[in-house]
Amino acid sequence: MTRVAVFPGSFDPMTNAHLDVARRASGLFDELIIGVLNNPRKAPLFSVDERVELIERCVADLGSHVRVAAFAGLTVEFAHGQGAAFIVRGLRAVSDFEAELQMALTNRKLAPEIDTTFLMSALEYGYVSSSLTKEVARFGGDISPMVPDPVAAALIGRMAEGRRV
Ligand code: PNS
């Protein structure tokens, strides 16, 4: 039996906590598809294509069984399309749990045959979030402990562009 999982998220941008979860999941599943949500109602810092490309660079060493794909609409539909029976989500702290439980139960109602699996990110990344990383970058703080190198470079570049306009 081939175990296929999707790891959905906004990934605007991918952080070290996300990458840690992707790395752990890559050891558990035969195929892992990192799904980047294209949400037209949000205005992300990075376009969906930029986010996909950045993640591809970050996960290049995880193996060819790890892929990155953009998706729109429901996560369970994306999972169906990829032939996945599992959704992977990361938990950093207890504070993540309530929202994640609600999402997992909603997804179970929509697609009872798909299970959500939770992986704890490493303790050292418990504080890391995409939104706070963007804020730190915006004010010139050191983001190197929070995001993989390609993301740090892209963030610094994007903030510099923002200051020029
Ligand atoms: O990285 P995020 O923003 O915490 O990820 C949230 C995400 C993308 C997993 C969630 O918003 C989602 O699944 N969106 C797709 C729409 C959907 O399926 N909604 C119903 C179940 S929550």
How are the SSEs ordered, and which strands pair?
Blueprint: E1 4-9, H1 16-26, E2 31-37, H2 48-58, E3 66-71, H3 75-82, E4 86-91, H4 94-110, E5 115-120, H5 130-138, H6 149-164
Bound molecules: 4'-phosphopantetheine.
**Strand adjacency order, main sheet:** 3-2-1-4-5
Biggest sheet layout: 5 strands, parallel
Q: Termini, distance in Å?
A: 53 Å
Distinct small molecules bound, one entry per kind? 4'-phosphopantetheine
Q: Which ranges are low-confidence, i.e. pLDDT below 50, for 5 or more consecutive residues? A: none
Please state the oligomeric state of the protein chains shown: single chain
Rg over CA atoms = 16 Å
Approximately what portion of the residues adopt beta-strand conformation? 15-25%
Order of helices and strands: EHEHEHEHEHH
Give the beta-strand count.
Answer: 5
| Mean pLDDT, all residues | 96
Question: What does this entry look like structurally?
Answer:
The protein is an alpha/beta fold. Helix content is 44%, strand content 19%. The protein has 6 helices and 5 strands; from the N terminus they run E-H-E-H-E-H-E-H-E-H-H. Strands 3-2-1-4-5 form a 5-stranded parallel beta sheet, sandwiched between helices. The longest helix has 17 residues, at 94-110. It is globular. The termini are far apart. 35% of the residues are buried. The model has no long low-confidence stretch (mean pLDDT 96). 4'-phosphopantetheine (PNS) binds at residues 8-10, 37, 74-75, 103, 106-107.
